[in-house]
């Protein structure tokens, strides 16, 4: 007796349909994964920007609330006021510079500046107060993506100034007794965060 073996298989059309369905599923999966990775990267970027913004706020408040009336001298022995500023640049002397147990050969005073330049906020520090020709500042970028910004200063009688010292204090020729503002305002327009405004009272003001 002869026996006929019947072998069942996929037809070409069935194989093509299966490949087509697999391609569609793969495309959908790739799109979903790409969206997830992009969202994750965007979230990480925003978190880093938020951390930078928080750190900048801490530095500004720490530095400016410790501003003191201590002028310095430049490399040519000219006196620089305790605080000198324009709408895009502020330079001042602060106390509270870290020196644990007095072990470091440095003062607890520090000369600090903040500058709005080319869409960035920079923090600049000097290794010593009174400078010599070899004194070089160190610069650090705190924020980027600044579309506009300025510093302003609250003086006697709640008068606001765009520069410091104001006009009535420009003839400064003494190492002591220069007024410093009652408060300093920082106003920045950030590309990804909108308006950033910080008003910092100066506790050590003597007007």
Give me the secondary-structure topology.
Layout: H1 12-64, E1 72-73, E2 79-80, E3 83-86, E4 89-94, E5 110-117, E6 120-126, E7 138-143, E8 146-154, E9 160-161, E10 183-190, E11 194-201
Antiparallel strand pairs: 1-2, 3-4, 4-5, 5-6, 6-7, 8-9, 8-10, 10-11
What would you note in describing this structure?
The chain has 207 residues and is an alpha+beta fold. Helix content is 26%, strand content 30%. It is built from one helix and eleven strands. It has one helix spanning 12-64; strands at 72-73, 79-80, 83-86, 89-94, 110-117, 120-126, 138-143, 146-154, 160-161, 183-190, 194-201. The strands form three sheets. It has a five-stranded antiparallel beta sheet with strand order 3-4-5-6-7, with helices on one face. It has a four-stranded antiparallel beta sheet with strand order 9-8-10-11, with helices on one face. The protein has a two-stranded antiparallel sheet with strand order 1-2. A hairpin with a 5-residue loop joins strand 1 and strand 2. The radius of gyration is 31 Å and the shape is elongated. It starts with 11 loop residues before the first helix and ends in a 6-residue tail after the last strand. The relative contact order is 0.14. The model is unreliable at 172-177 (pLDDT under 50).
């Amino acid at each position: 007796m002869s026996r006929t073996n019947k072998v069942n298989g996929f037809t070409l059309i069935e194989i093509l349909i299966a490949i087509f369905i697999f391609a569609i599923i793969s495309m959908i999966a790739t799109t979903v994964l790409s969206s997830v990775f992009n969202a994750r990267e965007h979230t990480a970027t925003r978190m880093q920007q938020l951390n930078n913004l928080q750190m900048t706020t801490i530095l500004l408040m720490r530095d400016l609330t410790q501003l003191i009336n201590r002028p310095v001298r430049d490399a040519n022995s000219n006196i620089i006021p305790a605080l000198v500023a324009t709408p895009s640049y502020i330079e001042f002397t602060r106390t509270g510079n870290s020196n644990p147990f007095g072990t470091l050969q440095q003062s607890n005073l520090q000369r600090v500046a903040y500058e709005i330049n080319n869409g960035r906020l920079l923090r600049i520090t000097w290794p010593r107060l009174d400078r010599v020709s070899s004194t070089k500042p160190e610069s650090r970028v705190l924020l980027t993506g600044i579309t506009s910004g300025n510093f302003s200063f609250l003086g006697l009688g709640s008068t606001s100034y765009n520069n410091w010292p104001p006009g009535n204090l420009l003839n400064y020729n003494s190492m002591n007794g220069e007024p410093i503002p009652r408060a300093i305002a920082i106003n920045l327009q950030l590309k990804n965060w909108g308006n950033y405004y910080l008003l910092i009272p100066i506790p050590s003001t003597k007007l």
